[in-house]
Amino acid sequence: MPSLPSLSRWFPFLAWPRPDRHLLKGEFSAGMTVGLMLVPQGVAYAALAGMPLVTGIYASLIPALVAVLFSSSTRLGVGPTALTSLLIGASLTGLAEPGSAQWVALAAWMALLSGLLQLVMGVARFGWLLNLVTSPVLSGFTQAAALLILASQLRAFTGLRSDLGALWSTPSLGHFDLVAAAFGVCSLALLVLARRWRPNFPAAIVVVGAAGALSWALGYADGGGSVVGTLPEGLPSLYWPGLLSWSQFSALVMPVLVVTLVSFLETASSAKVESQRSGERWNENQDLIGQGLAKISSGLCGSFATSASFSRSAINLYAGARTGWATVFAIALVLVVLLWLTPALYHVPQSVLAAVVITAVTSLIKPATLLRLWRISRVEAMMAGVTFALTLATAPRMYWGVLVGLVMNLSHFLYQRLHPRIIEVGLHPDGSLRDRHLWHLPPLAPRLLALRMDAELDFGSASALERHVTDHLAIQPEITHLCLMAQPINRIDITGVETFATLRALMQARGGILHVSGMKLPVDQVLRRAGLLEPGPGLQMYRTDAEALLVLQQIPANAPAPGNPLKIP
Asked: What pTM was computed for the model?
């Protein structure tokens, strides 16, 4: 019979602490705080994704439960998020009518495919792929997406009845529903003030509830105002979106990949904060499994892809959540709302939901980030800028921004690997070996070329090292000693072995010596298996740079007789 530790690897909820009265009291308080935020945000984000509003509550129920049971990070606020919802809404634009049965089916397929991809990645332990997306690329994409979210909410927030063209040609307040605009502006002001002064207070549900009550008292819905309307009560039923045609599948491939990537990066940003506070290592592969199962369950409920909300996760931690029991209590509150309280949302103005979304995404807009990146690294700042610009320019197909940013990042990484830092070293007055030309230092010895390559000796850097050596030897034919300061070289592959053999043969052909200092054991073992470290007159090995300097500084100005290598005194 499997032991508990082995079972908890696949079923993390088995490792939860046994609940007691003291623990449950704190978890209940934190769960109620997050649950009161989850309901209005879920409804608002469903509107952002172009989905029926009740699916936002569906996505906050079963998927959140599945995620907390099967993820290693148990204090994340899983459910609908602004960024993932925007990606879904933007990706499906032009493929179906928002809110229609076909739109719902395509959104469900996005959740199923994205969840399946994350599940496979987690089981195969491919969480390391997360490292391919750098912070500048993610920052550029996130900030552009935040602006697109804000732009998408302006019509509902201001109560704009006509299109922007009509407003531009004939500016007039008659284009706006002023009552809706008043609801939106007042709600936004209250939410911003609450976030600043009481960040752990569930202001969203209070504002939404108060706005709904005022809307009912004013008869806003009866007067033709835009409100949430009727939401179906009861639990979601099992939903199957039907089969995809080849054209639909092709249209969803790129959006699914980006939703998978971006949603897991959202999860990572929250999970890393949690792991730092708990002092435990983040298990990204188990979180991939949990988030993948959550998306699959969301698709089977007829809802859309979920993710981990940074804001709700932060509130959960701030409210004192210690285990997954807090999320269970939050889900219980959502269940109560779904079963009995959805009629209370009928009179809530759509502009109030827009204010909830705007409040959530304003924290993503950080203009100073690009300036900070420019001061640190102009290349990476340009990557962030291009990602930002392309995300805006290609909307609604804004996934091209993050994909181009990813390609730029990988290209820059490959360029750096193909152009490693190779310097000729000299002895600095402080006793260290530094770039001879940068610090204007004399050579270590006459007829000596002493090089240090700060990279692995593999297929990416080997040709650069060989080219560097041959170019120097062509310019300085008097050189008969080549010293490779090998301390920075951690790994060598077959191409590197061949380059090492080439350098040794090159020095032997000149009647010279190849000196190698500080070679690490993994590199040493590979070269010995290749038979390239056999003792001979053309090769000298040194354990340390200090040992090498003792010998190299004794190289005479005139060439030694062939077959008489330098000896350590």
From this structure: 0.81
